[in-house]
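For reproducibility, we list the full input for the adenosine-2'-5'-diphosphate complex.
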Amino acid sequence: MSKRWNVAVVGATGAVGEVMLAILAERRFPVNEVYALASRRSAGSPVQFGERTLRVEDLATFDFRKAQIGLFSAGGEISAEYAPKAAEAGCVVIDNTAHFRYDDDIPLVVPEVNPGDIARYQARGIIANPNCSTIQMVVALKPLHDAVGIDRINVCTYQSVSGTGKEAIDELREQTQAALAGTALPGRVYPKPIAFNVLPHIDVFLENGYTKEEMKMVWETHKILGDSAIRVNPTTARVPVVYGHSEAVHIETRRKIRADEARALLAQAPGVVVLDERRAGGYPTAITEAAGQDAVFVGRIREDLSHPRGLDLWVVSDNLRKGAALNSIQIAERLVENYL
Ligand code: A2P
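The corresponding predicted structure, in tokenized form, follows.
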């Protein structure tokens, strides 16, 4: 019988943790035990793992010697404290927070792009899962970068509230209901109303005027594509969508690529589905294509009117799945297949 693994899901009651449990069951990851971990507040409460109901355990008292794989998604501070402890106990951590992503000795992996980097997990026993908006962008850009080289990326994102977590989903729902009833409800999570609005702000502001979410897209694109010469200029925005991030990606390539060539390359690319019909509705959107699905959907592929080597793309994916839980589990699948 092939080997089975004990997997700990840290943040199992959260927006990403729930999807991690669902995808582990859906993809029949070879589990023996699954431990659902969260804060003491949630200890004893039920979470679903496929048909089974698991009881949440308190992360603070969990013995990581019981697990070989830890999927972490409970925030950077929790990972900072517990991921090294888990790794020390022999549990390989796949961390969905930004905490370790930029450390040179921590691999940052998108399996369709740089699967070979998983081999470097042994240095610290931790593999970082990239930011949701970076993952879907690099899955779409990898085949184009391989073919003609990307010199510059201008990207604007339209990111759903589930990327912030469950409280943000509640805030959008409550504010939307209140607004429809004619009242304005102040926010707890976002600094301005998110219902019927767009906020050009994700994560904290940095000294250079960009937000940290924007700089994550710069740093992570360089690290995952292994090419720090690519110039990246992001604007990240939060929109009143629950599941699925959309991105308008404008690239300037080193050699010219025609739209039909790009479309053909993308149609063959792993993890990508092209939906690019030049008619009303012939493009992917968060609700109609991305939510609940695994692929990165690409549409609106066209040559940039304003630049001889410019190409425009519209890229949409489920931020909780490919942007977080699915990518982590795809890393885990390769880890157990090739390295453990
Ligand atoms: P809990 O539900 O017990 O607070 P989201 O991203 O949807 O906001 O979810 C965050 C996840 O991180 C939840 O599962 C939450 O558990 C978990 N979490 C938050 N703080 C802690 C903590 N101190 N210890 C363990 N898990 C935590």
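The chain has a mean pLDDT of 98. Helices lie at 15-26, 76-88, 132-148, 166-180, 212-225, 259-268, 286-290, 321-338. Both points were considered when choosing residues for closer inspection.
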